[in-house]
């Protein structure tokens, strides 16, 4: 038992996390926290002074031997002192409670902000790693209240130690023997608590992975994204059972431990009660012989439960500090992650002149961060501003990967991507990305207003002109359905918020296109941006694409010939390599892989003619 307690105290990693947590709190809310600590000390001082004043009062009453008349003044003075101290104690307690709540909320907000800043700062490769998700999930699970919990547990422990010191002083003042006698009877209960809090902590760590599995099932059962399939495949009962089985496994282990703890605690608290009565008998015996006063006995009666709870709170406090430090570990793990690509210290300015820009892939090869398989091999591509360039290929050929590299979400493993002859790694990634508006294949549906959905395309703009937003929507073919929404451009979308309107997948896709068109970049990337559009909408978009592109360049990924044939140039990708390239009509004439890819479309086209 003792070894587990000392193990906790000597656990170096936990100690480092506690120190770092305190440094974090200090850096965020140092003064406020000092105030909280000071108020707690003041509160404790008032509590024990008021108790001591009460003891004095009882002693005066007892000494008067039933003739209070001669002691009235002393009694009134003592009552006033005890009353004033109790009042000050209550005020100090209220102030320390209020200030600690405020400080805790402030620290929690700062911490949430840091976690969000880290999630935004890290590059996309982190989202490929299950390890990152584990860290993010653990940090989120740890909760923003942990630093405060560590601090409060430390402060409470200090406060309880102060109380123990004050109680010990009072007991010694009555009779020093009381202290060792009670320690013998009370300590076993404390030990049981320490040992079982340690065992509970170990159980929690052991079961983290199972706990996550149960969270996964719970999320699956309740999420909107899985609601349709769960109903149509009738998966509800099965998934519910999976969740239940895991929870039962977790609960059974927990119950077993709690049961053991309870039986041991019953025995040790019985021992503590024996200790209490032994001390009482000892005190009464001394009182009979006039060695202690009635005030001493009264204060002993008041102090004994205080001693018990202060000891209990001290040991619990130490356990809480260490348990919370494990959670802080998860938060610090996340905050310590470093982005894998750093912007250059002296970043080049992205060319702003009117001269048309050219983006180039030069001998680019690439594999994803956690997969050594090359998905692009020595590819050369050219995207000039003012032209529409198509990238075509079968599923898995590497088209979307090119778009991710183009947007500098990853860097090539060899070769380079250039803008106007300069390696794009020499620009700041934010400034570079401002040149490219993208509709990703798996675009995002923002559950905010229609206007915001479009304005997100150029969030740095100070004022969003509603005419410009409408223009982007019209170009994307979205204006019609937006006008029919209850509050047209001010309608909140999705079902996450009260009164939101849901769109069809095709309508969401048109909105994503409007967002990219609203983007100020000189290139527009459409990665299968019309996959959910009806033929009429798709034809409408591409028929006018060239006119509203103006001087911008476009890079279009599509599986439909009707779209690809609008391009000035096309690259044909097969298993990560460019196997054909040229003007679409010439590629058809070649009758090679390009023609094979669009065979069915071509048959339809010719039958339409
Ligand atoms: N995050 C990833 N980690 C590892 N491999 C990936 C990742 N994303 C894609 N891949 C692999 O890279 C290859 C190219 O994928 P990519 O998404 O670029 O294909 P695509 O041509 O866009 O296909 P589709 O037409 O189906 O959209 C595939 O073999 C795929 O398995």
TrEMBL record:
Subcellular location: Cell membrane
Limits of the ABC transmembrane type-1 domain: 34-323
Matches recorded under Gene3D superfamilies: ABC transporter type 1, transmembrane domain, P-loop containing nucleotide triphosphate hydrolases
Occurrences of domain ABC transporter (ranges): 359-600
UniProt KW keywords: ATP-binding, Cell membrane, Membrane, Nucleotide-binding, Transmembrane, Transmembrane helix, Transport
Gene Ontology terms: cellular component: plasma membrane
Residue spans crossing the bilayer: 33-54, 74-92
Keyword Transmembrane helix among record annotations: yes
Predominant place of localization: membrane
Top-level taxon in the UniProt lineage: Bacteria
InterPro entries: AAA+_ATPase, ABC1_TM_dom, ABC1_TM_sf, ABC_transporter-like_ATP-bd, P-loop_NTPase, Type_1_exporter
Gene Ontology MF, one: ABC-type oligopeptide transporter activity
Membrane topology, record value: Multi-pass membrane protein
PANTHER family listed in its UniProt record: ATP-BINDING CASSETTE SUB-FAMILY B MEMBER 10, MITOCHONDRIAL, ATP-DEPENDENT PERMEASE MDL1, MITOCHONDRIAL
Official protein name in the record: ATP-binding cassette, subfamily B
């Amino acid at each position: 038992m003792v070894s587990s307690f000392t193990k906790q105290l000597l656990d170096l990693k936990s100690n480092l996390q506690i120190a770092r947590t305190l440094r974090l709190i200090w850096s965020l809310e140092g003064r406020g926290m000092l105030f909280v600590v000071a108020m707690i000390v003041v509160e404790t001082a008032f509590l024990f002074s008021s108790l001591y004043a009460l003891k004095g009062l009882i002693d005066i009453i007892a000494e008067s031997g039933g003739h209070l008349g001669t002691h009235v003044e002393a009694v009134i003075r003592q009552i006033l002192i005890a009353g004033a101290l109790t009042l000050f104690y209550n005020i100090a307690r209220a102030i320390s409670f209020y200030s600690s709540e405020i400080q805790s909320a402030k620290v929690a907000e700062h911490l949430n902000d840091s976690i969000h800043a880290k999630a935004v700062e890290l590059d996309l490769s982190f989202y490929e790693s299950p390890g990152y998700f584990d860290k993010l999930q653990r940090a989120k699970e740890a909760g923003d209240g942990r630093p405060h919990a560590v601090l409060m547990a430390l402060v409470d422990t200090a406060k309880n130690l102060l109380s123990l010191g004050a109680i010990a002083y009072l007991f010694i003042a009555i009779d020093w023997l009381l202290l060792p006698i009670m320690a013998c009877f009370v300590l076993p209960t404390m030990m049981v608590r320490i040992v079982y809090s340690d065992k509970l902590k170990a159980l929690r760590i052991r079961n983290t992975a199972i706990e996550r599995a149960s969270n996964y099932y719970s999320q699956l059962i309740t999420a909107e994204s899985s609601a349709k399939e769960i109903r149509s495949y009738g998966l509800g009962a099965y998934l519910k059972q999976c969740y239940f089985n895991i929870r039962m496994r977790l609960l059974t282990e927990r119950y077993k431990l709690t049961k053991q703890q309870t039986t041991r605690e019953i025995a040790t608290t019985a021992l503590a009660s024996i200790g209490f009565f032994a001390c009482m008998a000892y005190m009464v015996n001394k009182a009979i012989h006039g060695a202690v006063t009635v005030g001493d006995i009264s204060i002993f009666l008041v102090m004994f439960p205080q001693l018990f709870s202060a000891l209990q709170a001290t040991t619990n406090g130490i356990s809480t500090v260490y348990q919370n430090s494990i959670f802080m570990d998860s938060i610090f793990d996340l905050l310590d992650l470093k982005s894998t690509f750093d912007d250059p210290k002296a970043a080049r300015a992205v060319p702003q002149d009117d001269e048309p820009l050219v983006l180039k892939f030069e001998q680019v090869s690439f594999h994803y961060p956690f997969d050594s398989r090359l998905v692009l091999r020595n590819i050369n591509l050219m995207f000039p501003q003012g032209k529409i360039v198509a990238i075509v290929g079968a599923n898995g050929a590497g088209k979307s990967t090119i778009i991710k590299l183009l947007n500098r979400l990853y860097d090539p493993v060899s070769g380079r991507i250039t803008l106007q002859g300069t390696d794009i790694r020499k620009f700041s990634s934010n400034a570079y990305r401002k040149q490219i508006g993208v509709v990703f294949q798996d675009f995002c549906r923002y559950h905010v207003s229609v206007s915001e959905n479009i304005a997100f395309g150029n969030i740095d703009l100070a004022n969003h002109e509603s005419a410009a937003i409408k223009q982007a929507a019209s170009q994307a073919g979205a204006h019609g359905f937006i006008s029919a929404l209850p509050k047209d451009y001010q309608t909140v979308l999705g079902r996450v918020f009260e009164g939101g309107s849901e769109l069809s997948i095709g309508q969401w896709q048109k909105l994503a296109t409007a967002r990219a068109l609203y983007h100020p970049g000189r290139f527009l990337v459409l990665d299968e941006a019309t996959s959910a559009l009806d033929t009429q909408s798709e034809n409408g978009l591409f028929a006018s694409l060239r006119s509203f592109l103006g001087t911008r360049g476009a890079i279009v990924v599509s599986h439909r010939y009707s779209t690809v044939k609008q391009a000035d140039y096309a690259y044909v990708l097969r298993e990560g390599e460019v196997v054909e390239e040229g003007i679409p009509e010439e590629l058809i004439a070649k009758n090679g892989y390009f023609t094979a890819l669009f065979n069915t479309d071509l048959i339809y086209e010719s039958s339409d003619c």
